Amino acid sequence: MSTEAKNIRVLYLGPSGRPGVYTEDLDQQSRAAKEMGAEFVVYDGNSEGELIEALKDTDVAMSQGHGISPSLFRHMGNNGRCKGLISFGHGYDGMDLDTAVKNGVILANTASFGTEEVSNQTMMHFLVCSRKFVLHDKLVKNGTWTREHLAPMGHIAGQTFGIIGLGDIGRAVARKALSFGMKVIAYDPFVSSWDAKEYNVEMVGTPQEIAKRSDYVSPHTYLTSETYHMVNAEFFDMMKATAYLINCSRGPVVDEKALIDALRKKKIAGAGLDVFEQEPVDPSNPLLKMDNVSVTSHYASYSETAWNRANTQLGQEAMRVALGYWPMSLINPDVRSTVKPRKWAVSWEVMLAEQGN
Amino acid sequence: MTKQRVVVLGPNTDDPLHHERAEMADLDVEFIQESPQSEGEAIEAVRGADAIMMRGGWGTEQVIRAADQAKVLAVYSHGFNHIDVDAATDMGIIVTNGAGMCAEEVSNQAVTMALALNRQVVQTTNQLRDTGNWDRSPFLPIEPIDEQTLGIVGFGNIGRQVARKLGQGWRMETLVYDPYVAPWIIREYNVEQVFEINELCERSDYIIVVVPLNTETFHMIGAEQFDHMKESAYYINVCRGSVTDEPAMIDALKSGKIRGAGLDVFEQEPVDPKNPLLQMNNVITAMHLAGASTRSAWLAPQRASQQVAAVLRGEWPSAGQNPEVTAKLEAKTRMPGSAGKINNPAS
Fold first, then answer.
1. What is the maximum span of chain B, computed from C-alpha positions, in angstroms?
2. Are residues B54 and B132 in the same domain?
3. pLDDT tens-place string over residues B171-223
4. CA end-to-end span of chain A
5. Is residue B170 domain-shared with residue B194, that is, in the same domain?
6. Distance separating alpha carbons of residues A184 and A65, to the nearest angstrom
7. Is residue B61 part of a domain?
8. A6-54 pLDDT per residue, tens
9. Neighbours of A210 (CB within 10 A)
10. Whole-prediction pTM value?
11. Is residue A298 among the annotated active site residues?
């Protein structure tokens, strides 16, 4: 048991305060706190006022589907006991990073928990699109045995896969696309060409170049003001008529109206979508009626292994923040300029040893 | 607006600065080349500089504290152990290095040494050339490298390339010691992370160190670590000499605690010709040239110039090595990976 951790309280925020929605119990989420001897508290209030009160007696909070309003940050970080918030999952499009930075609130996510799953989902949609699976599955099941709708169909090997955002998921997609013998190009202003060389990926300077050169385009970015509607009408105008769009990131990265328009006007060949601008998707959304569009219900990151991993990381990152370390997956690095110096993040095993466990 | 002053400290003052000028062509800068012969001259040289580029030494606290206007200090090399980073951080100066600039080269040198030690190439060449003796027994046993274990200390750019080459290419079981590496990088490279340096030493047949030299890594491989290594193990250092406690290594090699070593670097460089390591038949050496190639020769100035250009444009450089300096800067600089404001809460 860590002597330092003994007085630490970790607050767990479930969806609207209800635990057990994602998992039967909170064993995984609370394991790290228990290993260190810290107290794990499940929040059960249901108003912002109650939550602010609860945060006052908390060193760090973790959220699994709980809404986080910017005003909470004014009672955290440099203004309170609760130093940070760890958010389950990958995207952090619900949180106001600026307010967090201003108030010295450290934010982290459970980076990379579902890298394999999301990249597999991407590859699945890509293959389903490329092989025109949706249409032919329907035709065969309806008793129609025809090959007249095959052309044009790409060879895959030698075709170009364009990735927007070369993070963990983008790199895993690149690795898998390379194993199909494809040429992989990527746009990511934060990745240098020399880093990309390690992954056999050619970096391009603009998203437009991705649009023009790719046979398959797949964004793997966060949803931010910079990536909102990044794939839009102008982008579709530049794409090849034989090209497909795959989206397993966030719906609003793609301008959905422009996508529907591009598909209707045959500006592109089809699309594979795990995400939509509105979720759950409206049953009357025209995308659901198209034979060249494959759809799934935003579950790309799911497998038991991945979600268990995310739950575990959630707890470990919380303890890092509570014990004065940086988290491993800091999502608002600008906060380094508004908080006191901290220890660098170390692996959980090393941290346990450092804390005298 | 006055021109920004970029002071280049180097061994000479007549370098054409091709890369420096090309990368900063869009900026209103003037280049000042200095070749200080003393700390005092270095102090004078950096005063009033907006950016400092170092092709050699003089990264001492006194010099850095004299750089009262500097926003960035760029070193051309990968290592920046000659720079007082704490002083720079305190002065609000971003320190950049040539990260990745020679990762291919250094990892190739490490792989070369591992293979050369495994196959005893240097020793067999020496014996045949010097004596013509066809007796192979001194070089046996030669172990099958694909059934052996590789231990990498430090899993940065270079360590990962060593893992890719020897781990995936030669199919070696690969252990990594690096307490700072994120678990997802470990998974991506399909290696095993160990959390005690001594465990890595005990289990590895080849121990390759690729860490920056700093107070944490100084003499991190010493008598205790050599005691934990197998008698059949090879130790390879392609990073910085003082990561190894050299007298302890000499002792380990002399007493047969390990089978051999591959050394690109030494605690004192150029190495003393009387250094006993140079007399040992189980040691292969090079003169700190792991990073060298015709490409790294031009990548180094290009990379350093890109770092300076980024900072002078008000951007965060890609190879900043003291992120804690942000505490001294206004929050306007943008770290790679930070996201903009959210205008569309969704999902």
1. 77
2. no
3. 999 999 999 999 999 999 999 999 999 999 999 999 999 999 999 999 999 99
4. 5
5. yes
6. 34
7. yes
8. 899 999 998 764 544 455 689 999 999 999 999 999 998 888 999 999 9
9. 24
10. 0.86
11. yes
Tell me which of A9, A90, A220, A298 is the catalytic residue.
Answer: A298
Whether B195 sits inside 8 A of A350 (CB atoms) is yes
Contact between A338 and A104 (Cβ < 8 Å): yes
Q: Which parts of chain A sit beneath pLDDT 50? A: 17, 19-21
Please check whether residues B218 and B74 belong to one and the same domain. no
By C-alpha distance, the chain B residue nearest A275 is B347
Q: Are residues B30 and B88 in the same domain?
A: yes
- The CATH code of the domain that includes B131 is 3.40.50.720
Q: Does some domain include residue B344?
A: no
Say whether A336 and B323 touch across the interface (CB within 8 A): yes
Residues B165 and B94 in one domain: no
- Look at residue A344 in the predicted model and tell me its pLDDT: 92
DSSP 3-state of A263: helix
Can you tell me the mean pLDDT for B13-27? 94
Other beta carbons within 10 angstroms of residue A212's beta carbon come to 15
Q: Out of A95, A251, A332, name the one closest to residue B346 (CB).
A: A251
d(CA B1, CA A244): 49
Among B188, B193, B344, whose Cβ lies nearest the Cβ of A347? B193
CA pair distance A12, A26, nearest whole angstrom: 9
A250 is catalytic: yes
| Percent of chain A scoring above 90 in pLDDT | 82
User: Is B22 a residue whose pLDDT tops 60?
Assistant: yes
Co-location of B23 and B83 in the same domain: yes
Provide the residue range defining the domain that includes B210. Answer: 103-285
Question: Which pLDDT tens digit goes with each residue over A134-157?
Answer: 999 999 999 999 999 999 999 999
Write down the ipTM of this complex.
0.80
Out of B230, B253, B285, a domain closes at: B285
- The whole-angstrom separation of Cα A122 and Cα A162 is 12
CB–CB of A333 and B337 under 8 A?
A: yes
- CA of B187 to nearest chain A CA: how many angstroms apart? 10
Q: Which domains does chain A have, with CATH numbers?
A: 5-113+303-354 (3.40.50.720), 115-295 (3.40.50.720)
Do B305 and B279 reside in the same domain of the chain? Answer: no
Minimum CA–CA partner of A112 in chain B: B184
- Structural domain tally of chain B? 2
Contacts A346 to B, Cβ<8 Å: 179-180
